[in-house]
Write a structure and sequence with these properties.
Layout lengths: L17 H8 L5 E7 L17 H10 E11 L2 H12 L4 E3 L17 H8 L5 E7 L2
Parallel strand pairs: 1-2
Antiparallel strand pairs: 2-4, 3-4
């Protein structure tokens, strides 16, 4: 009989629309972490409505996270980072994980992508944002 190791990480990868996966497939309050790395920033103001981080989607995500679960977002567009923080700040029951300021330093455990490394070489910024579900 196999025993369960508390350090085992279960990971599932799906090639499907993320909004549909969270709305229809994933069970409620089951996830310890949700990572959203470098989503399309939809830079033009008239396209901001297409950004994935919107109030309704954040509420769906909150329902999938366990209490104490982490929502970690990363973007290389300052305007997109500000948008993400603005949307998640109004979500009831979430707390920014940073102790001071708005953004956290790049976590050592987050892989550095080739695209991101190239951006750093060019002097571009990258913003990591972490929120904890507190209720």
């Amino acid at each position: 009989m196999a025993t369960r190791d508390a350090n085992v990480i279960n990971l599932r990868i799906m090639c499907h629309d993320a909004v549909e996966v969270f709305e229809r497939i994933l069970p409620v309050t089951n996830l310890q972490a949700i990572q959203l790395f470098f989503p399309d920033p939809w830079q033009k103001t008239r396209h901001h409505k297409r950004r994935i981080v919107q109030s309704a989607f954040v509420q769906v995500l909150r329902g999938k996270l366990k209490i104490g679960g982490i929502f970690h977002m990363v973007t290389d567009w300052k305007n997109c980072a500000e948008h993400m923080v603005g949307v998640v700040n109004v979500a009831y029951g979430d707390k920014n994980a940073v102790t001071s300021g708005t953004y956290i330093p790049r976590p050592e455990d987050r892989p550095l992508t080739k695209f991101e490394a190239h951006g750093y070489r060019l002097g571009h910024g990258v913003w990591d944002i972490k929120y904890v579900r507190i209720e």
